[in-house]
Fold this protein.
Amino acid sequence: MVTTFEQERSRAAVLRENTPLFEQRGKLLYIGGSAGKLQLLGLLLQYDWTILEIDSANAQTLDGEVVVGDVRNAYDLFEPKEFDTIIWWHGPEHVYHCEIKGILIDLATLCKGLIVLGAPYGYYPQDAYGENIHERHLSHLRPEDFYQWGYKSETVGEFEGGNESCLIGWNFG
């Protein structure tokens, strides 16, 4: 999923207003790394990055420290409180809804501070992308889901607006 500069600017504004994401430093875990997925990640160069990517072919296209693995097993891949910040940006929709709460509990054990989530706002069907079967959308999320899991959230764009919309959540682990 590639978004326009204006869409990313709107998403960055939500994060700037509600979190210290762009001012913090330290170790950052970016889950579901993709070179073209999140243009605003260019604003996070102050962090020491680790990328967790499930698709080994995609992982080979990424720079830096890349761990090939599944977010469902993140607890087994990293040490408790290893990261200052975790970003799971346009990733929660790629696992089943019933798995997300448990994954978020595990991520909270890995993080000392801020956890940021991003997902399409509402129903946005997507199948495998090329050879990457992990790109399928298995969940369709709303703000009340994020609230239920203990996250604050805001939306950008219209409900079920596809690539034009985004549900953004954050919690201070």
Summary: The domain at 5-131+140-156 is CATH 3.40.50.150 (Rossmann fold). The chain has a mean pLDDT of 89. The radius of gyration is 15 Å.
